[in-house]
Design goal:
Double Stranded RNA Binding Domain, two-stranded antiparallel ribbon, 18 helices, 32 strands
């Protein structure tokens, strides 16, 4: 006889009340949903399931007006309002203790269930079970070969190839692939989940809760490696892959791997070659409407994202965020393993490492020359192969290969100094000049002489001093 643990490992069902439970295994599932082909043993279960497709919700919560297709689902939902199952870390409430236990693992980083085929791990057994379907190709798209965890995911995905959007919003004509997506979208029009701070309407209570953190500054999810904090657990998971180097999403066409599923989806479109969004002012085409909208700002000159410190404008929010981090922040999380130098971004670190390794990954397509950085290649193409266009100053005729160097040069002619010191009225042409100036106001002296321990605010000052220090040392020894 097998004990309970051994039965579970062998896949043997260990349900206590055996007789009524055995019916689930032996009974035929004669009742089939016409929408998604899901099968049921009982007709009432099918009736309840159909409400998901029709959008019919008969059981409403008296506290938040949220509706459900079954009485049991409503009963579980009410636990959220009573705070019966509440997370002590972030305050989120759950319907069941099981949901709370699974959620708690997001804070601890605990993942008990590992896939034997790809080393990916999960916080719940059900998530692992669904993931295994990706390897078995049980739910595989016949168009692009992508595998899915469930038949529902495959059905929704298939509509992307056919262009089928069955569920349309009656108020804004926007269409959706599933009734649940349409139902969530409608909450935006009704203002059901509206932020009291800024008036933004959200699709769901969970989305509103995450949005509120942008006002409160609350970031309950902390990285165990670098202590960086995040508003959502998914952002933390994506960030963690920077440290681990994990890239679980692999392209089945070229084997290229990605850290995020969205990046893989973007990459797949390069194989399919679809660029449906075309610019009406130039010949450029884009795979996404958001990219086209961003591109149009190049023609209109619109820069809606403005830095509050230096008033510089950007066409994209991510460009503003990168600017704030690189120019106005002193946070340096990335350290060079060769010399210990710290950097603000992983990209800057990777570029710096080439100084030590001598790696030259950038190659010229016309000759055998290789370069450490792309900027060097660009100048090489202009000088050696006459490819590209020089940026020429119309005042002094000086030529530049990089637009950033050209802009700074023109600003010096026009005496434009956009970078203003927050401590005094001084203004500067570049962010680097401003940064060097701000060290005057700071009491910290980062650079020290290795011979006499004298400290300096600027790197060039310690270099100048060190040469004098060495000369004095040599003279004293003679």
């Amino acid at each position: 006889m097998h004990d309970e643990k051994e039965k579970a490992s062998l896949g043997i069902c260990t349900n206590g009340s055996l007789k009524p439970h055995a019916v689930l295994h032996h009974r035929k599932k004669e009742h089939i949903c016409a929408e998604c082909n899901k099968r049921f043993t009982r007709k009432d279960r099918l009736v309840e399931h159909r409400k998901r497709h029709s959008g019919e919700y008969t059981y409403s919560c008296s506290q938040c007006e949220k509706s459900f297709s079954s009485r049991s689902a409503l009963a579980e939902h009410k636990n959220i309002h009573t705070s019966k199952f509440k997370c002590t870390e972030c305050g989120k409430c759950f319907r069941t203790n099981k949901c709370l236990t699974t959620h708690s693992r997001r804070h601890t980083g605990e993942r008990l269930y590992s896939c034997s085929q790809c080393e990916k791990s999960f916080s719940s057994q059900s998530a692992l079970g669904e993931h295994n379907n990706v390897h078995t190709s049980k739910f595989k798209c016949t168009e692009c070969g992508k595998c899915f965890r469930t038949i529902k995911c495959l059905t929704v995905h298939s509509k992307r190839h056919t262009g089928e959007n069955l569920y349309s919003c009656s108020q804004c004509e926007k269409s959706f692939l599933s009734p649940s997506s349409l139902h969530d979208h409608k909450n935006i029009h009704t203002g059901k989940y509206k932020c009291t701070e800024c008036g933004k309407c959200c699709k769901s209570s969970s989305e509103l809760a995450v949005h509120r953190r942008s006002h409160s500054g609350q970031k309950p999810f902390e990285c165990s490696v670098c202590s960086k904090r995040f508003k959502t657990s998914s952002h933390l998971v994506n960030h963690s892959r920077i440290h681990s180097g994990e890239k679980p999403y692999k392209c089945h066409v070229c084997d290229k791997a990605f850290g995020r599923s969205g990046h893989l989806s973007d990459h797949m479109k390069t194989h399919m070659g679809e660029k449906a969004y075309k610019c009406c002012l130039c010949d450029q085409a884009f795979r996404y409407s958001a990219n086209l909208n961003r591109h149009m700002r190049v023609h209109t000159g619109d820069r809606p994202y403005v830095c509050q410190l230096c008033k510089k404008g950007f066409i994209d929010l991510s460009h503003l965020q990168t600017h704030n981090h690189c120019v106005h922040s002193n946070s340096r999380l990335y350290q060079c393993s060769y010399c210990g130098k710290m950097f603000k971004t992983d990209r800057s670190l990777q570029s710096h490492v080439r100084v030590h390794t001598g790696e030259k990954p950038v190659s010229c397509r016309h000759c055998s020359d290789r370069f450490t950085w792309f900027e060097q290649l660009k100048r090489h193409l202009l000088e050696s192969h006459n490819e590209g266009t020089w940026l020429t100053c119309n005042i002094c005729q000086k030529k530049f290969s990089l637009s950033r160097d050209f802009k700074i040069h023109v600003q010096r002619h026009e005496r434009l100094k956009p970078y203003v010191c927050s401590e005094c009225p001084s203004r500067f042409y570049t962010a680097h000049e401003l940064k060097c100036h701000q060290l005057i106001h700071a009491e910290v002296q980062h650079f020290a002489c290795g011979l006499c321990d004298k400290s300096f605010r600027l790197k060039q000052n310690v270099f100048r001093h060190f040469k004098r220090c060495v000369s004095n040392l040599v003279c004293s020894d003679m």
